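#lab-general

N.A. 3:47 PM
ok so I finally got the sequence cleaned up, no stray characters, all 341 residues accounted for. can someone with queue access submit it? mine expired

B.Y. 3:52 PM
send it over

N.A. 3:53 PM
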Amino acid sequence: MSGTLVDENPTDEAPRPEGRVRTKRIVTEVPSAVDRRFNFITMAAGISVLVLLLLVGLFLLIQSSDALGETGIFTFLTRTEWRTDVQPARIGVLGLLTGTVLVALVAIVIAVPFSVFCALAITDYSTAKRRKWMVGVVDLLAAVPSLLFGLWGFLYLSDKIVPISLWLSQNFGFIPLFKTESDASLTGSIFIAGIVVALMVLPIITSVVREVFSQTPPGEKEAALALGGTRWGMIRTVVFPFGKGGIIGGSMLGLGRALGETIAVALLLPQVPQKIGESIHILQNGGATVSGFIANRAGADSFTTSGLLAAGLVLFIITLGTNMIASVVVSKSRSGAGVDI
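B.Y. 4:20 PM
back already:
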């Protein structure tokens, strides 16, 4: 009866020339000197960022104490008008916050779908050669200064968007958001500012979503295709569920960027605070944002400067909270577990 000889003392080690001894790697939990230095550097960097944030917040709080003390925190947060030419001065941040949030929401509504489909085109529909230049174009768009976006929107895009605003007003004017007055100007609107800001936040959202989509397990994608699914079916059942947290986190990071945009909105909006009922008409001229209003009023008297810093403090808290929530969403999602953002 034939059989197979089995070595009673099997070993994985291949024969080695004489004089060469294999040294065993000792696994230890005690960090080396290099690991300790690296941990110290990274910990110091993280603490430095936290300290800088605290110092910025403390500076804004101290510098805005005069305006907040005279006006009152609750009144400052709930008052719409901003008038320093009367005694006592009547300043409030509600009108500025309304315009800031509306511009950011318009930008996110436009940017998120484009960003998701752009990320899909890069990760799942393009070839390796095409993917390189598409990534380069997106990264190059992120490097364009906001001043150029503002000038482009002010000098060129505004007139091109007026027919779209007019069409929306004529066909969807029954919605308060798209309602306009009969003789209202359609340039310098929140809608136009939102479109320009959408182009500015699109690279940020696209980069985050692209990185998350690229981490989708190839085995799950191939299994979906092997079972007879189409490419879109695979994306809908595999890629989207995997990248849901990344889409949400990227959108919120883009929202934080849109809330703090300054130069572009300072050029595109008249920076006149409006009442809430007036500000919701996003297609006609009007509106102001916190950052744009601060940029236009910089260098005023000491009390106005204190009020502007108080408005900046409110925006700082909102933006910081938005980014922190986005980080938590990404870190707790399935897609964020293996992705550094």
